[in-house]
Design a protein that fits this description.
Blueprint lengths: L10 E5 L1 H4 L10 H14 L3 E4 L27 H13 L3 E6 L9 H8 L12 E2 L22 E5 L5 E6 L14 H16 L4 E4 L19 H5 L13 H19 L4 E4 L6 H5 L9 E4 L1 H4 L4 H14 L8 E3 L8 H4 L8 H16 L3 E5 L20 H6 L46 H6 L4 H14 L9 E3 L5 E6 L2 E6 L30 E6 L2
Parallel strand pairs: 1-2, 1-11, 2-3, 3-7, 7-8, 8-9, 9-10, 10-11, 14-15
Antiparallel strand pairs: 4-6, 5-6, 12-13, 13-14
Helix pairs in contact: 2-3, 5-7, 12-15
Length: 538
């Protein structure tokens, strides 16, 4: 593969900084902790890391409410520590992606504070979506949109004279006002942000809410105002996926190409793109726009061979057809962990783990790039019984419901030992992680996983090694094979990946081999191949 296009089949590891490793003893992960964990990630075999937001923030949404896009929150370190992290990662051959949040900022961002202090119709307010309310006294929101995290998408402000005034738009929480990307000042500010971090050596950006930014210019009522809140997704067609957003990604791609031209080191743009179909998704990865966009349909597919084949086929047809490669993902910091998501309690606790292992190897066998969320390589389950008084997710605090809250997948990682904090924090023995770790995390600690060759960690490491060693994997195409019901099989040149989705065990193509296998396939079983990658999710 051309090294210049490293991203086309790269495997990137998502580091949720707050929960990765704490170097200071305050119970919160930090950049120095990430740097200390780099040898672990190098041993695992990933090509790069994506860092969750570490910018100065009041932490109403744990960093996705950014108060300053060009600095480091003191809880995570400082710019010098960030520079050391990038340098250390590059020495180990690990690329570094930052999470950038262009759809909204913090209500404590200087520009928003200026907007609150300014008058209606001022240039300061024009950087955001301020509007007069409806009704005789302006007491009703400007439209009927609801925020994704619950409640109305508008908050009314008190003007300088003390009277109730205009309303501002926030598609997530009131502490996260949406930028007005129809204002050129906003685009100019983000140009400066991109260049600030590119000048510090980053290898690219993961773009939060990449189908957002622009709203319908008239801000009309939605025919289904609660769609975003109901689905917890960007489905309001008046608030998301507006055509003007593609001009932004063309410009950002040009900025990245400018830096690549200087030193030959290609910078990556990967978008969090939630759109109705693979065909719409493909528009974001046209040759002059984003390099990659997460394909969430695989993550959302039920555990069913036909469902997996359908979403994979659509991605290969619509996205790979643009000249990009599909960017596969099974989990992230917003989703229930795969072990729990795939599990069926009536079938026993081991079922979800078997399916999660199978899904991981399936993803690594697919053409294109892949992203792994921290802790998935350990087989961590979702922590589903956190007490109400420790929950931090704004969804819980805005809705009063625990449904689809995200704290359970963000519990700090276990590294060693038999009791919390499991080596996560370097503080005193009694130091408490910012979210409590359950006792059973001892079974998943990294020191135990590395010592046990049957662990999920070794499954991931072996899968990554095979992916690197076998030229047939990574970028390319696939060919579907006919199999018995409940088994999904495809060929990658002379290799076969076969996945058992059924409830009854199916004999592996290579008798007596472990989960990963290579060698001749039995005649009539999986024809047309000389090697097999067999995955049993039953």
């Amino acid at each position: 593969m051309n090294r210049h296009h490293w991203w086309r089949d790269a495997v990137i590891y998502q580091v949720y900084v707050r929960s990765f490793l704490d170097s200071t003893g305050d119970g919160i992960g930090d950049l120095a902790g990430v740097r200390a964990g780099l040898p672990y990630l190098r041993k695992l075999g990933v090509d790069g890391i994506w860092l969750s937001p570490f910018y100065p923030s009041p932490q109403h949404d744990h960093g996705y409410d950014v108060a300053d896009y060009r600095d480091v929150d003191p809880v995570y370190g400082d710019l010098d520590e960030f520079d050391r992290l990038v340098a250390s990662a590059h020495r180990l051959g690990i690329r570094v992606l930052l999470d950038i949040v262009p759809n909204h900022c913090s209500s404590e961002h200087p520009w928003f504070r200026e907007a609150l202090a300014a008058a209606p119709g001022s240039p300061e307010r024009a950087r955001f979506h301020f509007a007069d309310g409806r009704g005789p006294d302006g007491g009703e929101p400007p439209n009927n949109w609801h925020a994704m995290f619950g409640g109305p998408a508008w908050t009314r402000v008190t003007e300088a004279d003390g009277r109730p005034g205009q309303w501002y738009l926030h598609m997530f929480t009131p502490e996260q006002p949406d930028w007005n990307w129809r204002n050129p000042e906003v685009a100019g500010e983000f140009d400066r942000v991109l260049r600030f971090w590119l000048d510090r050596g980053v290898d690219g950006f993961r773009i939060d809410v990449a189908a957002g930014l622009f709203k319908h210019p008239g801000l009309p009522d939605s025919p289904d105002p609660e769609a975003d809140a109901r689905t917890r997704d960007s489905v309001n067609p008046l608030a998301w996926n507006q055509p003007e957003v593609h001009d932004v990604w063309r410009h950002w791609r040009a900025v990245c190409e400018e830096y690549t031209a200087r030193d030959g080191r290609e910078r990556l743009l990967v978008g969090e793109v939630s759109v109705p179909s693979a065909r719409e998704h493909a528009k974001y990865v046209r040759p002059d726009e984003l390099h990659q966009a997460f394909f969430f349909d695989l993550l959302g597919a039920p555990w069913d061979a036909d469902a997996f084949r359908k979403v994979i086929s659509e991605a290969m047809q619509d996205i790979a057809g643009t000249g990009s490669t599909v960017t596969w993902v099974l989990n992230n910091h917003d989703q229930v962990r795969t072990v729990t998501r795939y599990g069926e309690p009536a079938e026993g606790s081991g079922l979800g783990a078997a399916r999660a292992r199978a899904a991981a190897l399936l993803m690594l066998a697919l053409p294109g790039a892949a992203y792994i969320y921290q802790g998935e390589e350990l087989g961590l389950p979702e922590v589903v019984d956190l007490p109400d008084d420790v929950l931090t997710d704004p969804i819980f605090h805005r809705t009063g419901s625990r449904a689809r809250i995200r704290d359970g997948c963000r519990v700090p990682l276990p590294w060693s030992g038999q009791a919390s904090p499991f080596g996560f924090t370097s503080g005193d023995e009694g130091a408490k992680p910012w979210l409590p770790q359950p006792d059973y995390f001892a079974e998943y600690a990294t020191h135990r996983a590395l010592a046990d060759t049957r662990s999920s960690w070794h499954l991931y490491r072996d899968g990554l090694q095979l992916r690197s060693a076998l030229h047939q994997l990574g970028e390319g195409t696939l060919r579907w094979l006919d199999t018995q019901p409940g088994v999904l099989a495809f060929a990658r040149d002379d290799l076969v990946c076969a996945v058992n989705f059924g409830t009854a065990p199916v004999p592996a193509p290579v008798p007596g081999t472990p989960l990963l296998a290579s060698g001749p396939c039995p005649p009539g079983e999986l024809p047309g191949s000389t090697a097999a990658w067999w995955i049993d999710g039953s």
